[in-house]
Write a structure and sequence with these properties.
Blueprint lengths: L1 E5 L4 E7 L1 H4 L4 E7 L4 E8 L3 E8 L5 E10 L4 E10 L3
Parallel strand pairs: 1-7
Antiparallel strand pairs: 2-5, 3-6, 4-5, 6-7
């Protein structure tokens, strides 16, 4: 799990680098599980990383956002980003 800050008024990219966990495997698909108070603006992935652009949130709230990947080898892996909403 990774923790980070986000301003409720900002639109920011959140990236997960999976390269250390993949070995010779690659990302075939990526999905983001985002709480309803946040908005996923866009998302993308390549063979070793996944990125989601998020907006919104409520000042003082804490949200867990999950990146779930499926690898070319058939593994399913989750990584959680804990986002604390704060004025920046």
């Amino acid at each position: 799990m990774k923790s980070t800050l986000k301003d409720p008024d900002s639109i920011e990219d959140f990236k997960v680098d999976w390269s250390a966990d993949l070995g010779s495997d690659t990302i075939a698909d990526s999905a983001w599980i985002v709480p309803s108070a946040l908005t996923k603006v866009t998302d993308a992935h390549d063979t070793t990383s996944a990125t989601a652009r998020l907006s919104g949130g409520v000042l003082g709230a804490i949200y867990d956002v999950v990146n779930r990947i499926t690898t070319a080898g058939g593994q399913v892996k989750d990584f959680t980003i804990r986002i604390l909403m704060a004025d920046q």
